[in-house]
Amino acid sequence: MVQQIIIADDHPLFRAALRQAVSEAVPDAEMVEVDSIKTLQAAVEEHPDADLVLLDLNMPGAHGFSGLVFMRGQYPGLPVVVVSGSEELQVMRRSIDYGASGFIPKSAPLPEITEAIREVLNGEVWLPAGVAEKLDRMQADVTDFSDKLASLTPQQFRVLGMLAEGLLNKQIAYDLDVSEATVKAHITAVFRKLGVRNRTQAVIAIQQMEIDPSDTSLSGS
């Protein structure tokens, strides 16, 4: 059976690099490329039997680890490997804690990315050399909020992302092509699932998923 691999990154040049790595790891793989959380959701729905997602943490529609947490909650059987510009151990630790099957720094050479893809497709968890031992000595970093976030439906997750961007109900309704009443119903459900009472609390809550903004190594992640 032909393996399907989804490449989720909003940088065309790096998508090309990942495409080359996938071609070398799995020569006959079928690849799907997306550049946002919205198009990633559509791709997963269109390809429910996909074998792997290579996920950039900071794509449009995602707030740090929120995209990873959402994917693991909605599609637990689909392996997700984080591909990031960060090489911070804490970012790697949180990625694994939130369910990633591996972590590939964008600085990794092509043969290493190819090896990582092969190992994850074989059921292994892949990390850069020497990192696993360091992460074992670090405290796990999973919050109760991640479980709540993972319980959101795809549409509720999209609404939450738009709330975090400061969009009004009317704008959300237009973008999603639904009524304002439907948007209000989604917002009510989001508040209930997250255990918050208003937009401000919801935005503060999802900021828990953000990568430390003081981490300058994340530029271009």
UniProtKB/TrEMBL annotation:
Residues 4-121 form the Response regulatory domain. InterPro entries: CheY-like_superfamily, EvgA-like, NreC/VraR/RcsB-like_REC, Sig_transdc_resp-reg_C-effctor, Sig_transdc_resp-reg_receiver, Tscrpt_reg_LuxR_C. The modification 4-aspartylphosphate is found at D56. Keywords: DNA-binding, Phosphoprotein. It comes from Marinobacter nanhaiticus D15-8W. This is DNA-binding response regulator. GO terms for biological process: phosphorelay signal transduction system; regulation of DNA-templated transcription. It comes from the Bacteria.
